[in-house]
Design brief:
Helix content is 33%, strand content 15%. The chain has 324 residues and is an alpha/beta fold.
Length: 324
């Protein structure tokens, strides 16, 4: 049983790979709605959203009760999944192992802490989440197997690219980097995703970093996985700007590792990882990013094959389910 919010198709990739490895997988989206207002109410006013959650999970619970046996209940960054349903699954499946993985910091998902006491294993992408419980295990995110098929090139269309959700100071940060690259004749690419134009208006009113932006600066459909990989393949380096409240590495960081491209990141924590090489990864100040041409001119240094495997989707699943 796999419960996860929809997240740019990553949950589908997890389901697909688990099935390829021989599992029978029952997947349900954690959230009743993935729209702007649904997500907002779930996070800011969950009590007001309680009836919607109840009606959403009623038919799901009936379906779950008809499953003869559940060996694993895998919760991935849940927000809406009812504790009552969690208890029911445990009561009906005496040998079920409950596994929780967080790909958002517990600091940002305070309500998720209520699941901890029911779990046999708890993993997080953020090393600072250990403060909430000693038994929480640190496990970075992963890259999809397709990224390992992206090959090095002799020439690139873009010096630096950015693809991601527009939050915090990301667009301001990218513009600072773009100006430096364009000053020495390089090209850049950016795809800033927002869930809706309503969200743009809200950010425009509440986020000072959006003050000088226009509605046309953003895209309102997520870039497909195929297009994302195409942009990465055509780029010499990728810019990563993590949320200010997170210390764990973004999914994009691992995808860049898998595709053997250079990374420019605001997350200084990357220096503590076994794949860190200053010739491949440049850590910059988010307020004053400086991109030396010397970094852009040196080639990517290949990393040991066992490290690539460790951060792949298969490596991640092996750890989650103790397969190796």
């Amino acid at each position: 049983m796999f419960i996860s919010p929809s997240f740019f198709g990553y949950e589908c990739a997890v389901v697909k790979r688990l099935k390829e490895l021989g599992s029978i997988v029952y997947f349900y989206d954690d959230r009743p709605s993935n729209g702007f207002w649904g997500k907002g109410l779930l996070r800011a006013h969950k009590k007001l959203y309680a009836y919607k959650i109840k009606k959403y999970y009623e038919p799901i619970e009936k379906q779950i009760n008809e499953i003869p046996q559940i060996d694993y209940l895998f919760l991935l960054s849940p927000e809406a999944f009812p504790i009552s349903l969690l208890r029911s699954i445990i009561n009906r499946n005496s040998n079920v192992k409950v596994i929780l993985y967080m790909w958002d910091s517990l600091k940002n998902k305070v309500g998720t802490q209520k699941y901890l006491s029911y779990c046999h294993s708890v993993f997080t992408f953020d090393p600072k989440d250990k403060q909430y419980a000693e038994r929480i295990q640190f496990l970075p995110l992963f890259y999809l197997n397709e990224y390992a098929r992206i090959m090095p090139k002799q020439t690139y269309d873009y010096e630096i690219s950015f693809i991601g959700t527009a939050h915090s100071d990301r667009i301001v940060m990218f513009n600072k980097v773009r100006n430096q690259v364009e000053n020495y004749g390089g090209k850049t690419y950016a795809y800033f995703y927002l869930q809706s134009k309503k969200l743009f208006i809200y950010r425009k009113l509440t986020n000072p970093y959006f003050k000088k932006t226009n509605i046309s600066d953003f895209r309102y459909e997520p870039l497909s996985s195929k297009m994302t990989m195409d942009v990465i393949e055509r780029s010499k380096a990728i810019l990563d700007v993590q949320h200010p409240n997170q210390t764990g590495l973004t999914m994009r960081t691992l995808e860049i590792l898998g595709s053997q491209r250079k990374l420019i990141t605001t997350n200084a924590e990357v220096r503590n990882y076994d794949f860190y090489n200053p010739q491949n990864i440049l850590v910059v100040d988010r307020d004053n990013p400086v991109i030396p041409q010397s970094f852009m001119q040196t080639p990517f240094v290949p990393i040991d094959e066992c490290i690539y495997k460790k951060y792949s989707l298969d490596g991640w699943l092996n750890t989650i389910f103790s397969l190796s």
